[in-house]
Amino acid sequence: MSVIKIITFTTMDYDQYKRASKLPDVKTTIFTTVGNLARKHAALDLSQGFPNFKTDEKLMSLVSDALINGHNQYAPMQGYFGLREIISEKIVSLHNRNYSPEKEITITVGATQAIFTAITAFIRPGDEVIVIKPAYDCYEPAITLNGGVPIYLQLDAPNYKIDWTAFKNKITKKTKMVILNTPHNPTGTVLTKSDMEELERILKPTNIILLSDEVYEHIVFDGKPHESASRFTDLAKRSFICASFGKTFHVTGWKIGYCIAPAELMAEFRKVHQFAVFCVDHPVQRAMADYLKHPSHYLDLNNFYQEKRDFFLDGLKSSKFKFKPSLGTYFQLLDYTNISKEEDEVIVRRLIIENGIASIPISSFNVDNRNDYMLRFCFAKKKETLEQAVEILCKL
Ligand code: PMP
Ligand code: GLN
């Protein structure tokens, strides 16, 4: 009879790797931590940003057609050309800017990879990158991994407006890049034309690259436009603009998006892209190319989510929460100071365990985890889910 010896490793064995970490302070993301706790306690989950309604049958059948039609091998490194072509047409019609499908559009594994790739292509040790806080969590680790230094501009509740003079004061000789996100996760603010013009004016005399995270480009409310960086000539010239089909077509699990930039910037981006992923899921790219032929698939999104926002906020009128309606994205911040003075991470935990509802604490997006007494709720949910959420939140 053979005896299997079970080998166990001690913490000592791993200490050397811990010391070698390039991201010693990074923990598992708040979305994973809160999501796990929500599942453990079977809580209603309005934390991580993803829809809980069904994906369009038409889109799913386009993917299965692509599989059956044999598009099962590598796509071109830059992405399926037909998809890049239709993206280019979409940008012309929405923002009146021409991006060459050949040289200026690359399909990526979601916006996350686009952001990581753009940062990696340009940030060297010691380069400064201005990050406006609160900020989505994937920017800083990418900067740090490349030896860059995040320089923060912390915005204040409840309006989270950018003070452009304070922004300008953050620029130094070392500033290589600025990261912008509009519509903004987690605050739901949307930059106006005059914000973008101000940014354009400030960056004009510099060589600073703009990384514009526009994943919620089609979720803007109250008839307002999405002021893409591509609309502003001097910004477009220096910008990587990142987009996500996951967000736009309710398929966050498919991890597909794209990046656009002028040819000179995109050439550098592709040098990294080709070795990080080479290319993206081929059948899904084919399906997206067909699906994008109908602009209603993305143009109807503003109203679709505005109805959800309004339904959620109507229900919360009788609650103790204070709020300013989200202007874009599918997130709503709720101020809980009339309910409790707890730290936001504490109340998030308690609401999951005791009340069965999950949200995201805004401190996880702020500099030094500052607490703004705000919780972020995702309203990309079925009506029944929003009704249940309202019922729980109104009892607090
Ligand atoms: N940027 C922001 C602001 C986000 O909220 C997200 C989350 N989806 C991403 C980027 C990443 O997008 P993707 O899922 O396409 O990688
Ligand atoms: N964008 C999503 C959010 O803000 C999270 C996606 C993720 O977990 N990486 O909730």
Describe the structure.
With 396 residues, the chain is α/β, with parallel strands linked by helices. It has two domains: 11-55 and 301-394, Aspartate Aminotransferase, domain 1 (Alpha-Beta Complex), CATH 3.90.1150.10; 72-297, Type I PLP-dependent aspartate aminotransferase-like (Major domain) (Aspartate Aminotransferase, domain 2, 3-Layer(aba) Sandwich), CATH 3.40.640.10. The protein contains 16 helices and twelve strands. The protein has helices at 11-20, 30-40, 57-68, 81-95, 110-122, 139-145, 164-169, 193-203, 233-236, 245-248, 263-276, 282-291, 296-299, 301-316, 344-355, 383-394; strands spanning 44-45, 105-108, 128-133, 149-154, 175-181, 209-213, 239-244, 257-260, 331-335, 357-358, 360-361, 374-378. Strands 2-8-7-6-5-3-4 form a seven-stranded mixed sheet, with helices on both faces. Helix 8 links the parallel strand 5 (175-181) and strand 6. It is globular and about 55 Å long. The mean pLDDT is 97. The structure holds 4'-deoxy-4'-aminopyridoxal-5'-phosphate (PMP) and glutamine (GLN). Glutamine (GLN) binds at residues 29, 31, 48-49, 136, 185. 4'-deoxy-4'-aminopyridoxal-5'-phosphate binds next to helix 5 and helix 10.
